[in-house]
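Ticket #4471: structure export looks truncated?
Reporter: QA, pipeline team
Priority: medium

Steps to reproduce: submit the single chain below to the structure queue and open the exported record.
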Amino acid sequence: PGPDHPLCLPAPLTMTEKASFLKLNCCACFLSLAIMVLCIAAVIVDWYKYSIVFQAVEVSNSAGGTNPTFNVNTTKVFYTVQGLTTSINVPNGEMSNKFKEYSDMDSVHSIFRLVFGFTMVALILSGFLLVLFVLYFAEAIRNKVLFALGMTVLRLFLVVVAAIVLISVLIAFLAFLGITNAFDDDIPNCQRGYCRRFQDSIKQEHGTVTADDASGKSRTYLETSTEEWGPTSAWYLVLTCTPLAIALLICIIVNKFPIPVDSVGTGEAL
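Actual output as written to the record:
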């Protein structure tokens, strides 16, 4: 460009706009940190739970009031990305816990490998973004990155990374809905509720039995069972990451990097 055609450069940001950049950068740091922490928790805690409680309800009580109820047996199964833990509790207070890997549950294992993989992608990339946003508070580092990559390339890069984080948590959340079909594939002739519905509960009655109590008096009990199954903490943690990832993506799109002073004076393209 000659004297009659001066180089048109964007005006440097005002103090108000710089303050806005710092606020949005703080927001991006917080969102990245929140997503990273939630993803760490998601790969540690339970994703799914199944429980069945057998109870005996006394029906021979003629004194009125609420009939006493006794827990006969409680079995709970907790599913994590590493394997499943079966916990059995009986009335005498004895409890047994047994951990088992998904060695004979290929379909279930595939689901957990999938959700684990995409959760880890979101975890690593959100941590990477957190480091970048923290470094961007230092003007010297921020200017060097802007001169090296250019503002357009840098903003596009951050948007792409944030979009991958969002896509990853969405895939992890939605893919886990396939756990019902995975149970049905791995368990031949499965009649359990978790092979038919993702989340539900069933209460059944199994008839009455008669037994003598400690005093030798005959009493009649109604035996019942309550089954409950569905997603637990980890699935909801990944769900929580989704709006956070959307907010992070919006924050990156609307935020404006302050233009280095040198670029305004020298005409160096960003």
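Status: closed, not a bug. The export was complete when the record was re-opened. Leaving a note from the reviewer for reference: The two ends are 17 Å apart (CA to CA).
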